[in-house]
Amino acid sequence: MTPLQRRQLQVFREFRYQPMTVRSLVLVNWRRYLVTLTPPAVGLVYFCLVYNILPPGYGAIGIAVVLGMLVGLLSRDLGTLRGSAANWPVVREVIDWEKVDQRLAEVQPDDGLTRNGTG
C-alpha cells in the first residue's frame, strides 16, 4: 500500500463515526490548499503592487487572471467536496471496516518505492 492509499484509509476511518462535511474535508486537506493557493495569492499580491508601474490595463488584466484562477480552483474543489460529503453515507455503509483496520495495522516495509508505488 502506498503512503497516499494509507492516508486515504486513515481519512475514511476518521469519518466513520462523524459526519463528513465540506468544512471537515477542507480542514483535513488544509496543507494541500495552502500549497495550491499560495502561487495565485503571490501573483495577486504582485499584480496589486506593480499595478501603477505597468502600462495601463496590464495590471488589471493580471489581477483578473489571478482572481479567475482562484475562483476556478475553489469552485472546482468545493463541487468535488460537496459531492464527496453527499455520497459519504452510502460509501460508509458498504466499506468493509474490518479490512480497513487490518490494512492500517499492517507494518509498512521501507521498500524504497516512490509515492505512487512505481519505484
Question: How does this structure look, described?
Answer:
The model has no long low-confidence stretch (mean pLDDT 84). The protein has helices spanning 3-14, 22-28, 30-49, 58-94, 97-105. By secondary structure, the protein is an all-alpha fold. It starts with a helix and ends in a 14-residue tail after the last helix. It is 71% helix and 0% strand. It is elongated and about 65 Å long.
Mean pLDDT: 84
Shape: elongated
| Main sheet specs | none
Structural class: mainly alpha
What is the number of helical segments per DSSP (H or I, 4+ residues)?
5
Helix and strand element order: HHHHH
Question: How far is the N terminus from the C terminus?
Answer: 13 Å
Number of domains: 1
Low-confidence parts: none
- Please report the total strand number as a whole number: 0
Report the C-alpha radius of gyration, rounded: 20 Å
Residue share in helices?
Answer: over 70%
Strand content: under 5%
Structure at a glance:
The chain is mainly alpha-helical and 119 residues long. The protein is built from five helices and no strands.
